[in-house]
Structures are given as structure tokens and as C-alpha cells.
Design a protein that fits this description.
Blueprint lengths: L1 H12 L3 H4 L15 E7 L5 E7 L2 E6 L8 E7 L3 E6 L5 E4 L4 E5 L18 E6 L3 H5 L2 E2 L15 E4 L43 E19 L11 E5 L5 E6 L7 E20 L9 E10 L2
Antiparallel strand pairs: 1-2, 1-4, 3-8, 4-7, 5-6, 5-8, 9-15, 10-11, 11-14, 11-15, 12-13, 12-14
């Protein structure tokens, strides 16, 4: 009977995000903001497989390999931010204006741009509400290994061109914000990149979803020379279309940092007017790192 009651109450707590929320003990003062974090792992048909909850942090574990189309859902109240670490990928801070973030387990072909075995085994997922100190401290505000093409939360990478019309996951815009900088090859992991067609008028954009202060940009150009050739320069624009600066880029696999003359407040950064010395060769960004912080 005790086991039955325990399972019954666990099921009731995990039926909905509301039911899962706020299980940590302790009381809060009138000045403290009421918060909750809920993680749900949902099957492709929307049925809940497991969940976890807490006032400021939550964690789940799942022993079986995830199925393509399954959804990891994180719901927060009292904050528009959540730190997420799941599937063995890098931890990052996400901005979720509506309080909910969904990550869909990719189909088999897109999985090749994640570390081998990422979705071939059980996993853990942990989410928490970041502190003000973390938000206001300098970090890579472009980092999002959980980004994907249809993602409506932030940070989010997009481009006006991706090789093969975006049908080849090895060259999607999301690859340039996933935290992996191995750039001496091209194709599947660990060499995934934003790889556009060989053409003029290219634009690559990173949206933050809110205003942030940025101070520098580090580029890892794709460096599979001689298959590749590096763009020699790239213009950087803020969300109003104002030119922030022009970065000179060299033929190297090392990270190249462009430091702004002074910090800029913007909700997005667009990179365009890339100059190629040889349009017969390919160019791309393996990773773009933006050093910045939230401004409250």
C-alpha cells in the first residue's frame, strides 16, 4: 500500500507543469520573487514519460535512449531565464520570454552533428534559474547547443543561406553557436559549421531576444584548407542596422577576436559583407562567440 500511494502521488505531481512546480521546502519573504522550475520529458505523442520540479532547480534522469520527436520541456515561473544542461551537451543560459522551452530530439540524420552517442543512451537533464550575478557577468551570450532551425527562444542563430537549401544538417546556422570549435575539417561532428553556398550577399544573425551588452566577437572560421578559404573581412551590425565594426579575418584555425571600441547594447548581431578572395572555394563559420552580458 505504501508503494502504491508513493507512485500515485508521484504521478499526480507529474501530470502537468503546474502540478510539478514548487516542491522545494522553505519560505520566502515578501521581497523575494516566487519561482519554480519544471522539467518534463514527453513522448512524441505528447504523453509525459517523467518529470521533476523545484523552486529554483530541477533534474530528471531517463534510462532508455530518447526517440526522435520526443520533447524535453522546461517551464519556469518568476523568471525569463533558465540554465539548461542535458544530453551531455554544454550548459548554457536560455532566454524564454513565455517561460517555456522545448527541445525536440532530432531525427537520425541531424544527430550526426552532435557528439557520437548523444541520443543513443539514457540521459540526465538539469535546469535552474540563474542568479543575477551570472546574468550580469561576462559570458558567451551566443552559446546554445540546444538551438535548432524552428527554435523560437534564445539565443538563436539564423542565416539567409545554408548549403543545399538547409537540407544538410552539417551546415546549418545552429552549428556556429553549439560550443564546438574544431574547425580543421568540414561535414559531420566534430566539424559541423554554418556553411553557406558560394555566393555574395550572405548574412548570418544571432538573436538574443532582449537587449544585451556586447564587448567582443571571436570567430572560428572553417579552416579545412585548401578545400576552404577564409573570408578576409566581415561587417558586424547591431539590431538597428548600424555598423558596429569590420573584423579582419586571417587564414588560421585559431580563434580570432574582434574587440569593439566600446560596449554596444543590442538585441541581435548580424554579420554580412563577407569578402572572399576565391569564390571557387568554400567558406564558413565553425563557431561564433559573443562576449557580453545581460543589462537587467
Amino acid at each position: 500500500m505504501k508503494k502504491f500511494l508513493s507512485l500515485f502521488f508521484a504521478a499526480v505531481m507529474c501530470l502537468t507543469a503546474a502540478g510539478c512546480g514548487g516542491t522545494e521546502g522553505g519560505s520566502s519573504s515578501a521581497e523575494e520573487k516566487e519561482t519554480s522550475v519544471v522539467i518534463q520529458y514527453l513522448a512524441k505523442d505528447g504523453s509525459e514519460l517523467t518529470c521533476g520540479s523545484g523552486r529554483s532547480a530541477a533534474e530528471i534522469s531517463w534510462e532508455s535512449a530518447p526517440t526522435p520527436g520526443d520533447i524535453l520541456r522546461v517551464t519556469v515561473t518568476g523568471s525569463s531565464y533558465v540554465s539548461l544542461e542535458a544530453f551531455g551537451l554544454n550548459k548554457t543560459v536560455l532566454y524564454v520570454a513565455d517561460g517555456q522551452y522545448d527541445f525536440m530530439v532530432p531525427e537520425e540524420t541531424p544527430q550526426r552533428d552532435y557528439p557520437d552517442g548523444t541520443f543513443a543512451k539514457g540521459f540526465t537533464a538539469a535546469a535552474s534559474i540563474p542568479s543575477d550575478e551570472e546574468l550580469m557577468g561576462n559570458r558567451n551570450i551566443a552559446l546554445n547547443p540546444y538551438d535548432y532551425k524552428a527554435n523560437a527562444d534564445f539565443p538563436h542563430a539564423a542565416a539567409n543561406n545554408e548549403y543545399s537549401g538547409g537540407s544538410d544538417p552539417d551546415f546549418l546556422a545552429r552549428n556556429a553557436v553549439d560550443g564546438f570549435t574544431q574547425n580543421t575539417g568540414h561535414g559531420r561532428y566534430p566539424y559541423q559549421s554554418w556553411g553557406p553556398d558560394r555566393k555574395d550577399g550572405l548574412e548570418f544573425r544571432i538573436d538574443f531576444g532582449r537587449e544585451c551588452e556586447i564587448s567582443s566577437v571571436t570567430f572560428y572560421v572553417r579552416a579545412d584548407f585548401p578545400h576552404d578559404v577564409n573570408w578576409t573581412s566581415c561587417d558586424i551590425f547591431d539590431d538597428d542596422g548600424a555598423l558596429i565594426g569590420t573584423a579582419a579575418l586571417d587564414q588560421t584555425a585559431e580563434g580570432q577576436t574582434f574587440t569593439l571600441d566600446s560596449p554596444v547594447v543590442t538585441s541581435s548581431v548580424t554579420f554580412s559583407n563577407m569578402v572572399s578572395p576565391d569564390m571557387g572555394k568554400w567558406s564558413g563559420f565553425t563557431e561564433v562567440i559573443i562576449n557580453g552580458k545581460d543589462i537587467g
